[in-house]
Design a protein that fits this description.
Elements: E1 5-10, H1 16-30, E2 33-38, H2 46-59, E3 67-71, H3 77-88, E4 93-97, H4 109-116, E5 121-124, E6 137-141, H5 145-154, E7 163-170, H6 180-189, E8 193-200, H7 206-217, E9 221-225, H8 239-247, E10 252-255
Parallel strand pairs: 1-2, 1-4, 2-3, 4-5, 6-7, 6-9, 7-8, 9-10
Antiparallel strand pairs: 5-10
Length: 256
């Protein structure tokens, strides 16, 4: 499995620099091509677009001919979401920013790209600095297709010698995943050292339990299945995904 073509969303606000820096680091490490896609709401302003183009060119200079810039025609929420999602389908990985107040980007952009692009989406929090991901990954596991996809999608982002945690957070009525040993064995075949943890929650939410696990593991990446439509009461129908999107404290890779 290779990661050869990365798309990062750019806008005119300061947090773009953090997304760009992380995307560049990943592209350099895995030898991927990086495309910066500028898109935000409002009337087109050539000066804003050209400033973004110049900033991208300067930041991505180490990639030489493996970097390109695309300026998406600006417009309303629907147009931006529709066109960005269509473009995202042609890449191996999409990097977006967490929804932030006061930024001219559709609030539902992460939700729509995650559910409709068919690609893994790495969402970067709107606070904090992230030099890289994949040294201390955390896999939010449950017995559903999204979680299985997330494990596979995260593998190209992991660094050699990483220390991984697979955590299954469930309510009191849910049993431990009976094939956890096979999951850990599969990761070992990919040279990923991982341990499995079964966590039963009662008085706190699944999101709080995962955020606590991120802190306890000092995780620099969480991989999670998104918007599963199954019957799992804790993650089904998008409630858990939206909670993680709202409260993430580390970069999160969403797979759908």
């Amino acid at each position: 499995m290779t990661l050869a073509n990365i798309l990062v969303h750019l806008d005119s606000k300061p947090r773009t620099a953090a997304r760009m820096a992380l995307s560049l680091r990943i592209a350099e490490r895995v030898g991927a091509r990086l495309t910066g896609l500028f898109a935000e709401k409002g009337d087109p302003q050539a000066g804003t677009v050209e400033s973004a183009r110049a900033a991208f060119a300067a930041a991505a200079a180490p990639l030489k001919d493996r970097a390109q810039f695309i300026a998406l025609n600006r417009g309303g929420d629907h147009e931006i979401i529709h066109r960005l999602t269509a473009i995202a389908r042609t890449f191996d990985l999409v990097v977006l920013g967490q929804t932030e107040d006061g930024v001219p980007v559709p609030a539902k952009l992460p939700d729509e790209v995650i559910t409709e692009s068919g690609r893994p989406v790495l969402v970067v929090p709107y606070v904090g600095t992230y030099d890289d991901v994949g040294r201390r990954p955390l896999f939010a596991w449950h017995n559903a297709r999204g979680a299985a996809r997330a494990v596979s999608d995260a593998l190209p982002l992991l660094t050699g010698g990483c220390d991984a945690l697979v955590i299954e957070v469930v309510g009191k009525s849910y049993p431990r995943y009976e094939f956890s040993d096979l999951l850990i064995a599969n990761l070992a075949e990919h040279k990923v050292k991982a341990r499995y943890e079964h966590s039963v929650v009662d008085e706190i939410s699944v999101t709080d339990a995962l955020l606590s696990a991120i802190s306890d593991h000092s995780a620099d990446l969480m991989a999670i299945g998104a918007f599963d439509s199954g019957v799992h009461a804790l993650f089904g129908h998008g409630a858990g995904t939206r909670a993680v999107l709202a409260h993430m404290t580390a970069p999160v890779l969403f797979s759908h």
